[in-house]
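[step 3/7] inverse_fold.run input=structure_tokens len=132
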């Protein structure tokens, strides 16, 4: 199965991230996608950039013949994310400034990232996955 999906919230991230890291050597690419939560009332993300990028990202990943792992990390609702002290904004490994952010995780560090303004661009997603 080429695409392996893990999901985490801020509260469950550490445990899921350890599993993701331990399985990383088995995959051609290991990606972390930081996303906005979905609004329980509408089942839609509060983040228009996430709504635009997610289908493009999944289409590209599912089309790849390689073994790829993706950890979908949900940042929380809008007020939680807007807090300047949000854990992933201040975490030295991630230093998030926006969502969605797609990261290629390699050798236990961020190798490449696509920020919110570019995470929907097919050519950039392909390059990130192919490590070009």
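[step 3/7] decode complete -> sequence:
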């Amino acid at each position: 199965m080429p695409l392996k999906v893990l999901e985490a919230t801020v509260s469950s991230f550490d445990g899921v991230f350890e599993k993701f890291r331990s399985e990383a050597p088995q995959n051609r690419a290991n990606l972390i996608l930081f996303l906005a939560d979905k609004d329980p009332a509408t089942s839609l993300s509060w983040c228009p950039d996430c709504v635009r990028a997610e289908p493009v990202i999944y289409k590209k990943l599912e089309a790849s013949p390689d073994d790829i792992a993706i950890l979908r990390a949900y940042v929380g609702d809008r007020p939680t994310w807007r807090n300047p002290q949000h854990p992933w904004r201040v975490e030295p490994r991630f230093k998030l400034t926006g969502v969605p952010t797609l990261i290629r995780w390699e050798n236990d560090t961020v190798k490449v990232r696509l920020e919110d303004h570019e995470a929907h661009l097919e050519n950039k997603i392909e390059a990130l996955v192919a490590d070009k």
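[step 4/7] annotate
DSSP finds five helices and five strands in the chain.
The beta strands are 3-9, 29-35, 68-74, 101-106, 109-114.
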